[in-house]
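Progress note, sequence design subtask.
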């Protein structure tokens, strides 16, 4: 019953360092049986990944990780089983990417005031041109020798309250779910233990997400501790959400967890890939 699966990962199309093909090869080497590429706000890697996966005989699910602003908080919603070419979804993505460009210029301006020259050009070198991420700014600052690693740059410069932070409006929760559903996919709340919100507000988020037709909860995430996985699994049960799991892999140098290397969904919880909705919309994986 416990398939070796990984339903959350990033490639060079967003802020990962492996190409979609390299990522598929690595997942296959790690004996992943069911895999999703979920780049931030971008579908460009999905055709390449699907064809690489079919060559090695690995089951592949086209996915995305959407940036959402909910109640003044940035949260991430993963969509699984989406049609990468859906027109409405891609129009929505264009809006998010335009915002990334505007935000990038503001971040660069602020970083320049903090003493980093040519931050925009520097960050762009790390982006393949599809999306501009804070991760790319972090990589540039590490390159400049101003921090040990990407994590340290976030802590010092890029999070709320630090000199390079810029706030803004991503997609609404309602739009994100309607784009995912319109493109034929299932929606999942990504890494729910990562948000800096109270337990009450997390419950409100889940209630609204369910109301909008959301089904999945990524209780098992490469970014969760065993204790967080336990708590998030209980929360999913209370709200009758299906469990999803994903490493959130970005790069071999900077791993939360290796591709596919997560614990099994606990007995008594239903994995998203066993749901009837998954069978109806994505297909039977057994
Ligand atoms: P953005 O969507 O451009 O605002 O960037 C968000 C991305 O930055 C996330 O998807 C992570 O990959 C990365 N990130 C966020 N916070 C941290 C952190 N504290 N340390 C390292 N990477 C982070
Ligand atoms: Mn990322
Ligand atoms: Mn995320
Ligand atoms: Mn992610």
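Output:
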């Amino acid at each position: 019953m416990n398939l070796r699966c990984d339903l959350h990962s990033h490639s060079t199309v967003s802020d990962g360092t492996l190409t979609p093909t390299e990522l598929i090869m690595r997942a296959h080497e790690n004996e992943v049986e069911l895999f999703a590429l979920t780049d931030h706000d971008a579908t460009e890697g999905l055709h390449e990944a699907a064809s690489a996966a079919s060559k090695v005989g690995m089951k592949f699910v086209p996915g995305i990780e959407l940036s959402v602003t909910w109640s003044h908080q940035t949260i991430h919603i993963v969509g699984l089983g989406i049609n990468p070419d859906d027109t409405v979804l891609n129009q929505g993505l264009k809006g998010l990417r335009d915002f990334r460009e505007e935000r990038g210029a503001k971040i660069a301006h602020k970083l320049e005031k903090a003493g980093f020259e040519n931050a925009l050009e520097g960050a762009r070198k790390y982006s393949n041109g599809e999306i501009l991420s804070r991760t790319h700014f972090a990589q540039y600052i590490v390159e400049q020798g101003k921090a040990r690693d990407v994590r340290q740059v976030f802590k010092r410069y890029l999070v709320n309250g630090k000199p390079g932070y810029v706030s803004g409006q991503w997609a609404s929760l309602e739009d994100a779910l309607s784009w995912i559903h319109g493109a034929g996919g299932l929606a999942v709340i990504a890494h729910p233990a990562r948000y800096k919100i109270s337990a009450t507000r997390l419950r409100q988020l889940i209630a609204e997400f369910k109301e909008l037709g959301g089904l999945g909860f990524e209780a098992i995430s490469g970014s969760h501790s065993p204790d967080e996985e336990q708590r998030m699994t209980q929360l999913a049960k209370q709200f009758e959400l299906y469990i999803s799991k994903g490493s959130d892999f970005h790069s071999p140098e900077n791993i939360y967890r290796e591709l596919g290397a997560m614990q099994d969904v606990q007995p008594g919880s239903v994995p998203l890939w066993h749901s009837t909705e998954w069978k109806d919309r994505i297909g039977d994986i057994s």
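Residues 277 and 283 are 9 Å apart (CA to CA). Work on this subtask will continue into the next period as scheduled.
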